[in-house]
Fold these 3 entries.
Entry 1:
Amino acid sequence: MWSRFSNPAKFEEMARIAGPISLGLFIVTALIGLGGGLFYSPQDYLQGEAVRMMYVHVPAAWMAMGAYSFIAVMSLVAFVWRHTLADIAARSAALPGAVFTALALFTGAVWGKPTWGAWWVWDARLTSMLILLFTYFGYMAIWQSVPEQVRAARFARILALVGFINIPIIKFSVEWWNSLHQPASILRADGPTIHPTMLLPLFAMIIAYTALFTWLVFLEMRTSLLRQRIEKHSIRAPSRPVNISVGDE
């Protein structure tokens, strides 16, 4: 099965179908999630209306970590199996992942002001999320600044794998250190602690963010493959001499 998706032609065939499906799923689930979160779910008894920021913030934070985990896995695959398509997938996920991380930090600040009384605190999770954003920037900078693509891919893979150390730090920071963030309330051994009227719109938004990420990655990968084909064709195309004939005056 892996050989099917590592072949650029077969991947593009699959992406032409999966891409629009992902976009459609994003639109439907985003409407359900936002509609349910804004108009159907109740206020929180402590946070009031500010809790509605959860439907934008929490999925963004999850996707920030999920996108980077995807980059790390693709980088490992590229190291082990030398599949260039894995490098393309990892590179294509970097910008969406950085945007999700920035969105999580911004909405966290907006949510934190009425809840904690401050826009920013050097909380363990906030600090590790900020480090994640800088890691995304560093990863993208490598691809842009190193002219030789083979070297750029090698350096980017190393950074992606080393930076993955930060993902479990983000996840377990609320348990390892004193944190203003509450402990896990969804992925728990004894089940979620969020009421279903809040949990269902939140799950819809998580699906929406995942579908959006999938569509963006497929779109960028297809664009990168098309760009590679154009560059190879321009290199291989023989230059034709230009004949200039001057007529008799």
Entry 2:
Amino acid sequence: MSEPASPSEIEQGEGGPVGREPEPRREPVFNMPPVVLAVIGICVVVHLIRFYWLTDDQDFSLLIRTAFIPIRYSGRFDLDFYAFSSPFTYAFLHGGFAHLAINMVWLAAFGSPLANRFGALRFSLFFAATGLAAVLLFWAVHPIGQTPLVGASGAISGMMGAAARFGFRIDRSSGKAAFAGAPLPMAAVFRSRGVVTFLVIWMVINLATGLVAFAPGIDSQIAWEAHIGGFVAGFFGLRAFDRRQQADEFRA
């Protein structure tokens, strides 16, 4: 049995007692999926530990083990555990606070609607796959490079590629912003003026910042190869991770 409401919970109306109108629901300050918050949290914690806790020698040792270094796969070195883990762990390291801040802002913007559509598991797999595609292209261009590659921008570029395939359409009907509709066919993508404009501008900016080695607040060179590798993987491979698309196929 339900308990009767107290007089303070009942207001008198013209037709008798009526319940008070519910207070409007407050939106959370950080309206991001838990998996996106988790990735941001890991990146921030790792960077703070490197900056405030580790010595220079300890940080260098960490980079050798967890950053992606192409020459490791040249045949000159034995392939140890870190050779297989670093193509994934490099994404959680960043070159400076500006690098970290820029990547986290873009991760929140493009990762949140993608995670709300994919779900936590598929989003995590997408993050890992596009990050791996990013280092594969970087390695193909610099097979004996010795400079460590760090940063989540390869995977974030994959999210931008996925966003382009959805035509940047957002569905907020459930209270959680998510990319809406089925991924656009290639013919529709290249007929969309907005999507094509985004693709051209994105490519020009990445090539310019990478080849000219200029980006505000970032001293190190931008790995444009990793950005393109991640973007292409997200653009062409998102159907493998899209649970809504697969659900529609099963119902058909």
Entry 3:
Amino acid sequence: MATGSMTAWQLLALEPPGWGGALLTGAATTVAISACAFSIGLIIGLFGAIGKLSDNRPVGLILKAYTSVIRAVPELILIVGLYYAGTDGLNRLLMAFGLPPVEVNGFVAAVAVLGFVQGAYMTEVLRGAILAIPTGQMEAARAFGMSPLLRFRRVTLPALLPNALPGMANLWMSVTKDSALVAVVGYQELALTTRLAGANTKEYFLFFLAAAVLYLVITLLSNLVFHGIERRVRRGQRPAH
């Protein structure tokens, strides 16, 4: 494709031969991967935090090993290792039952791997938030005869959210950037689309600058969302300085 005579606006046009539409699609895919992975990480982290704070020693040791290993190994190695090892393990299991192998969908694989990684960090964020809850609140809930589930819904959850939100916001920003790593397993999101656009047009600076702007927009909008949530959950509290 000849691009020497094309202006920057033409290269960034939404319609081909411009790459603007592909970049926006890549940005939407990045947000979708990040949102799904963040949600999975939040679920894992919630159960992980409760498990680490429980009196069940075997569960606590397993969760400690999980969070230690995941946080020690670089995300890129984890993504590549879990993707290929997980796919191979699944196909070996299917073959053992006489079933044909399957090709794991790239989106599902990206979400599962990033969610598994997020879960380790989320476990520690939520564990710290739970530990920051004044013990008197929990003792008062027990004195009123609340069941564990009711205590969690009425006392623990509302009290941990203000403490956990800053860490959760940081993890969301982290997963939006870590989503770029799924390009190594062949799934096309914003980072891979940017590299393809640059390789096809040789206008690397233009497209990487455009991608940086899109990541910045995602970050700014995310900050607005988290600030809104934080204002809501901190209603009635004195503002932090």
